[in-house]
Design a protein that fits this description.
The complex is a heterodimer of chains A (577) and B (248). Chain A is an alpha/beta fold. In chain A, 58% of the residues lie in helices and 11% in strands. Chain A has 2 domains: 230 residues, no CATH class; 233 residues, 3-Layer(aba) Sandwich (Rossmann fold). Chain B has a domain of 122 residues: Rossmann fold (3-Layer(aba) Sandwich). Chain B contains 11 helices and 10 strands. The chains are: A alpha/beta (577), B alpha/beta (248).
Chain lengths: 577, 248
């Protein structure tokens, strides 16, 4: 192991030395080509840093690159190089935060269009400023630098962006954004502040892009908005990242290198048909390599290499995580307060009152069955408790502390875990990562080797010990339900909400499921279950709350409640009573 | 009407169905019972054209070979699938969801009349005609899914766990509706975990285990079968020991 590490470090060292020494021997043409390779590698890697895990396709690369170029154009006369680059990073970061805050709520196609529009907006603003205030549309850049200098700066930037990518990938922050990319709802209910995570990553990615623009600007000597904010750049970067594989660290590099070389040949041989060929290349890539070069390598050439399952984290990455991810304050639990109290809670959707004057208490270690006809508001009640929805009125308290208006991720951090009526797992992640998503973001968070061990324990507990490395999408419906429970239990919840977790099981499977929930109760879990399987309700629940048309119509032990005339009429039907 | 002969199906290397043959005739309800993972859903998906069958299979609908035709043409042949997990269009209203069901050529002419029938069958949908489906409860969405399948004027309905998430009273109502749909001459192939109620209305049933059919018979015969009682009706002893898989 030690020898391998040394050999690995030596290889990297030699490679770096070769790259650093390259300008000393290269011709002018080759140096120019190397600069193109490096700056596209940085841009594509920075793009994939954000868009790879979150699946938000950004076409704003040109906007940030152009901002960087203009930072150099304006500041280079007054400031030394290092300060210009720092200023570029800071400006990129601030613009990304402002833009991100207003747009990361957008999803899918809306975000793509907006990010594309952003580049145009900034270009127009800069043009307006230059024409009306500066007095001329273009600027000359008299930077005291050489091609070699630009090359070395880009090389350093490449190392930095790959290093940042590696750190993020191996940190809790990286896990958070992978979870967000697969299912934002699950992410929130695991305790992830999705807005903050997306925003932070967007800003990091944008800062690298602005610095690249700032480093590259002197290459042109003269810039105007059409050069600096060239929208084609945004598309080229997307093509490169997708061609290489946006989901991996080195994928964008594997895409950038061949494509930059290809573009070089194309421009030299068919200067007039460049765009046509570019478009065709894009189409071909999407059809032939949906997972990029990396995907091809992994499935065709290296089928035996299994993905690494260790979640051990380097101390450096842990520190980076801490900085980005301060821990939520641990609420002090009041011992004699009910675990959960709902008081006069109300929620309406337009004219439809889904939950009205709802109130009940839940003691520690109790299992409460929430039952009622379809559309009576049971799932809405769970959504209000877990913070997926905010009530219009009333109070909800967890262990005596109000959680009424808290967002879902705060409620999850405080110890309410849930499963979903239509099972929700992270399809592309392994079972292990699915459970670690539940461990890593509540407070106190579990991470690193401890998380790995605990996740394996939880998986074996729900009967998935042999599926640790299996991607969740390959599990049967039943196993996905098991996995969802393991993820919920990973939050070490004070209160567990099970929304029809036993639905879809046949009689013998149901008995096994009931046995597990009983086991959880013996360990002191407090549970609310929404369920239509009366056998389960009878054998599990200490108490039932029956809802009809948004209101509580009965409350008490199952035997009494299920014999109630109103309950029979509204819910059970005469046949089943 | 529906004849399935020697159907096998694979997901990668995993064999989900092994040489399955069965029939459904007009105006009968046939229920398929089996554990989770036995291949019930796959069987419906193969019949509906969503999962390809392995070579050697032959599926015919009213004499027409539908083994290898795409799903949208299978709907024209008179087979409508209601998938597990509903598959409704959340952003559309109840009415729009239902009218979408009448898109196939076979259903367009009678669209208004079929809608009338569906709304009589599910009065709740009539009350909620203009509500966006996403905002409805799980059970109501299930009704929309079944209603939409009926809008294709099918000769055969494939239902994957229609009672999932329904309150007991709705469940009883649903099975009552299915009996009424049968009375109109439509055949129903039903996958259900609620063995008690489904066997009550089923004309016939099949037992499926690890992708094979291991038993069949009339609803009454299956109901009396001790093996069925033990596994699906919950009347037998079930041991939950340390060695048995925990959870659901």
């Amino acid at each position: 192991m030690k020898v391998r590490t040394v050999a690995y470090a030596a290889t990297v060292g030699v490679a770096l030395a070769v790259f650093v020494a390259f300008p000393l021997v290269a011709s002018g043409y080759h140096l120019a080509l190397a600069i193109s390779l490096l700056y596209f590698t940085v841009l594509a890697t920075a793009w994939a840093l954000f868009s790879g895990p979150t699946h938000y396709i950004s076409l704003a690369t040109a906007a940030f690159f152009g901002i960087g170029a203009y930072t150099t154009a304006v500041l280079t006369e007054f400031l030394p190089w290092p300060l210009v680059l720092l200023a570029a990073a800071a400006i990129g970061c601030v613009v990304a935060l402002i833009v991100g805050l207003s747009t990361l709520r957008l999803s899918g196609i809306y975000f793509v269009i907006f990010s594309f529009g952003l580049a145009e907006l900034i270009r127009q603003l800069v043009t307006w400023y230059e024409v009306n205030i500066h007095g001329s549309i273009g600027r000359y850049i008299f930077a005291n630098t050489t091609s070699e200098g630009i090359y070395w700066r880009l090389l350093a930037l490449t190392v930095l962006v790959l290093g940042a990518g590696w750190l993020i990938r191996h940190s809790r922050f990286g896990l958070a954004v992978r979870v967000i990319g697969q299912d934002e709802t699950v992410a929130r209910h695991c305790g992830i502040d999705t807005t903050r995570a997306k925003l932070a990553l967007f800003a990091i990615s944008a800062s690298f892009m602005t610095v690249t623009g700032a480093v590259m600007a002197p290459r042109w000597t003269y810039i105007d908005p059409a050069i600096a904010f060239n929208p084609v750049l945004s598309f080229e970067v997307v093509i490169m990242a997708l061609f290489g594989g946006a989901g991996t660290l080195f994928g964008p590099l594997l895409g950038a290198v061949p494509l930059v070389l290809l573009f070089e040949v194309l421009i030299a041989t068919f200067p007039n048909y460049f765009s046509v060929v570019l478009g065709s290349v894009f189409v071909l890539i999407v059809y032939a390599l949906p997972n990029g070069v990396i995907g091809l390598l992994q499935t065709k050439l290296l089928p035996f290499r299994r993905p690494s399952l260790q979640f051990g984290m380097s101390p450096l990455a842990e520190k980076a995580t801490r900085a980005l991810w301060p821990r939520a304050a641990q609420p002090s639990a009041t011992s004699d307060a009910p675990v959960l109290r709902l008081d006069n809670v109300r929620k309406a959707f337009g004219g439809l009152v889904a939950v009205d004057s709802m109130g009940f208490d839940l003691r520690r270690g109790e299992i409460l069955g929430l039952i009622g006809p379809n559309g009576s508001g049971k799932t809405t009640a769970l959504n209000l408790i877990s913070g997926a929805l905010s009530p219009d009125g009333g109070e909800i308290a967890l262990s005596g502390e109000p959680i009424t208006m808290l967002p879902a991720h705060r409620i999850a951090q405080r110890g309410i875990a849930r499963t979903f009526q239509l099972v929700r797992v992270l399809p592309a992640s392994s079972c292990l990562e699915n459970v670690i998503a539940g461990l890593a973001f509540h407070s106190p968070a579990v991470w690193g080797v401890a998380a790995d061990t605990r996740a394996r324990l939880l998986l074996s507990r729900v009967g998935l010990a042999d599926k640790v490395a299996t991607p969740a999408r390959q599990l049967t419906y039943l196993d996905q339900k098991r996995l969802e429970l393991a993820r919920a239990l990973a939050l070490s919840p004070k209160l567990l909400l099970l929304d029809e977790w036993l639905a879809g099981l046949n009689a013998s499977e149901l008995q096994v499921g009931i046995a597990l929930v009983k086991l959880l109760r013996e360990e002191g879990s407090t549970i609310v279950i929404v369920e239509h399987a009366m056998d389960a309700i009878r054998s599990l629940c200490d108490r039932c709350v029956v809802m009809n048309a948004g209101r509580k119509i009965a409350e008490g032990p199952p035997a009494a409640v299920l014999a109630d005339r109103d309950v029979i009429r509204a819910y059970l039907g005469e046949d089943d009573a | 009407m529906l004849e399935i002969r020697s159907v096998s199906a694979f997901y990668g290397k995993h064999q989900a169905l092994d040489n399955v043959s069965l029939d459904v005739v007009r105006g009968e309800i046939v229920v398929i019972l089996g554990a989770n993972g036995a291949g019930k859903t796959t069987l419906l998906k193969v019949s509906g054209g969503l999962v390809p069958s392995a070579p050697g299979a032959r599926i015919t609908m009213a004499g027409r070979d539908v083994t290898h035709i795409p799903a949208y043409q299978i709907v024209e042949a008179g087979i409508a699938l209601v998938p597990e997990g509903r598959g409704i269009f959340g952003e559309l209203t109840v009415r729009e969801n239902l009218l979408l069901g009448a898109f196939p050529a076979r259903a367009r002419a009678n669209e208004a009349a079929t809608l009338e029938v569906v709304l009589t069958l599910f009065p709740r949908l009539n009350e909620r005609l203009h509500q966006v489906v996403r905002t409805m409860s799980g059970g109501e969405q299930q009704m929309v899914a079944i209603g939409r399948a009926l809008m294709t004027s099918p000769d055969l309905l494939l239902l994957d766990e229609p009672s999932l998430g329904l309150a007991p009273i709705m469940c009883t109502e649903l099975f009552d509706r299915l009996a009424r749909i049968r009375a109109t001459g439509v055949g129903i192939l039903l996958v259900e975990q609620n063995a008690r109620q489904s066997l009550k209305i089923a004309d016939r049933g099949y037992l499926i285990e690890s992708g094979r059919i291991v038993g069949s018979g009339s609803g009454a015969v299956l109901k009396a079968d001790p093996a069925v009682q033990r596994a699906y009706l919950g009347t037998g002893e079930v041991h939950v020991g340390q060695s048995s898989p925990v959870a659901p």
